[in-house]
Amino acid sequence: MKKSAVILIIISSTALVFSQLFSSGDKRQQSKEKELNVLKSYLSTARDSLQNEIANRWRQKQRFVEQREADKEELGRLREKQERAHADLSRIKEEVFSKERIIEDEQKALQGEKDEWQFVHSTVGEVLEKEAEFIMETFPLDREERREDLEEIRRDRKTHSNPAKTVGEYVTYAERYLENGLQLSIEKETVVPDEGDAQLLTFARFGNVWAYGISENSRIYYIRQTGNLGAQRFAIPEIGESEIKGHLLQKMPQWIEQQSISGNVLTDVMQNAQTNVIISGKEVKATAHIVNYIKKGGATMVPLLLLPLWALVLIFMKLFQFHRKDKRNKKLSAQVLENLDKGAIEKAKSIAKNHKGVVARIVGTCLEHSKWKRSAAEKKVREILIEESPQLNKHLSTLGVIAGAAPLLGLLGTVTGMIHLFKVITDYGTGDPKILAGGISEALVTTQTGLAIAIPVLLVHNALRNRTNKIMSEMEKMAIRILNRLWPED
User: Fold this and answer.
1) pLDDT tens figures, 305-352
2) Cα gap 359→482, rounded to integer Å
3) What is the DSSP letter of 234?
């Protein structure tokens, strides 16, 4: 619109110029009319152009209005779509949050199942480890076979890593050997007896309780329970008692031929040390009783037995020291007093120089300083006696410590035995009193040994201390006698 107004102004100005030109003179009127006509034609053309421009502008304005209305409608539709998108986005966020919570719960549940699975896996491994350790305590005829079967289960476990399958295999394994422990059977197995090399024996097996075995050279062996734990739970001694051996030599070939056990069977119900002595037919020496007693006490018996040896060494050292000092002091004192009574001071001095010990030091000090007053000599003698006292009391405190430590070590053995006893009760229950006896004997034997060591050591310690006091008193008497001989007037 502004452009059209400018064009109209230009046209008007041009018309005004031409009108002024026409009014200026007639001579030029004719030429100006031509120009005016030209201008009119130009004006008509400009007017037509202006009209066309106005019409175009109007059409553009109409299109603009129509486009604006269309844009408003489109904007409304877009806003509706945006609102719907916001609503959908909020719904999707809620669904995502809900699914994330579900996923977290599922992950926690999965982690819990993994932990349970790992716990089951580790528990199965621990059971197999304990079983591997327990094999040495099982019946000797099953040990090698059980070890092979258990190793196969452990190899399979490493291959498939499935605890459920491993548990099934272990249950089958346990049922098999439990069934073996409830049967009477004839078996041939290589075993290592308590004495001698490994032998191939044919056994008449009575479950997992005991078994009789016979070798190719007709030697009879007996598998029995010892009441101990570990590899020493079963023993395989040879039967030496003539009647028992003769009965088994008669019965065993029949059982082996029939592959079954029948008839009367000699049974060791107690299976203890006394019945073992009877069956073996051997005389048990005192040393064997001592060794057995020490074994019952357990590991604590080692320091307990070292204490009396230490105490004996100290006791003999002190007795030798006291005997030597007492004998030497009495002999020297008698010689010196005899010479002093005779007035032979120089001879007494030479005797003191040729001897060692506290009396010789006292005599030599007093004779060399005979010009002293008695009070000065007494002080010097007292110093010599005080220096001698630690030598006489040396190691006596150690004996007192040994006397006090022995019962404490015995108490330590008692506590160790009780811990062992409770562990046995936890693992095996209270059904087998022989197994329980191991912990009880360890608890009682160490206490008894500790008291047996402490009481005599304490008595000897007291006797040695009294002997020390007596020797000190004798030396003081000898010193006073010498002082009285040298300073009789004081």
Assistant:
1) 899 999 899 888 888 877 777 677 666 666 666 666 666 666 666 666
2) 10
3) E
At 317 the pLDDT is 87
pLDDT band at 353 (very low <50, low <70, confident <90, very high): low
Q: Which residue has the tokens 């041939």?
A: 188
pLDDT in tens, 420-458: 777 767 766 665 666 666 667 667 888 888 899 999 999
Can you give the pLDDT at residue 459?
92
The mean per-residue pLDDT over the stretch 406-433 comes to 77
Return d(Cα 386, Cα 390) in angstroms, integer: 8
pLDDT score for 440 = 72
Cβ atoms of residues 170 and 126 within 8 Å: no
pLDDT > 70: what percent of the chain?
73
The β-bridge partners of 204 are 186, 212
Which of 201, 200, 213 is closest to 252 using CA atoms?
Answer: 213
Q: Is the pLDDT of residue 411 over 70?
A: yes
Q: What string of DSSP letters covers 353-367?
A: HT--SHHHHHHHHHH
Residue 109 identity (one-letter amino acid): A
Distances (CA, A) of 219 to 50, 200, 247: 144, 11, 13
Q: In this structure, are strands 210-214 and 199-206 parallel, antiparallel, or unpaired?
A: antiparallel
* Distance between CA atoms of residues 246 and 402, nearest Å: 54
Contact 406, 451 (CB under 8 A): yes
Spatial separation of the C-alpha atoms in residues 237 and 275, rounded to whole Å? 12
CA 221 to chain centroid, in Å, comes to: 41
Dihedral sign, Cα of residue 320, residue 322, residue 327, residue 329: positive
157, 128 contact by CB (below 8 A): yes
**Residue 431 identity (one-letter amino acid):** G
3-state secondary structure of 235: strand
Rounded distance between C-alpha atoms, residue 4 and residue 50, angstroms: 6
Distances (CA, A) of 269 to 204, 205, 274, 276, 299: 16, 15, 12, 11, 30
Q: Which residue has the tokens 């609102």?
A: 83
Tell how strand 234-235 and strand 220-225 pair up.
antiparallel
User: What is the torsional sign of CA 25, 28, 31, 32?
Assistant: negative
| Structure confidence by residue, pLDDT tens digits, 72-127 | 888 888 888 888 888 888 889 888 888 888 998 888 888 888 888 888 888 888 88
Closest CA to 301 of 213, 414, 468: 414
Structure tokens at 231: 């590899």
Residue 227 CA to residue 292 CA, distance in Å, equals 13
Q: How far apart are CA 28 and CA 119, in angstroms?
A: 125
- Between the alpha carbon of residue 136 and those of residues 188, 263, 477, the distances in Å are 19, 32, 71
Quick check: 410 and 447 in contact, CB under 8 A? Answer: yes
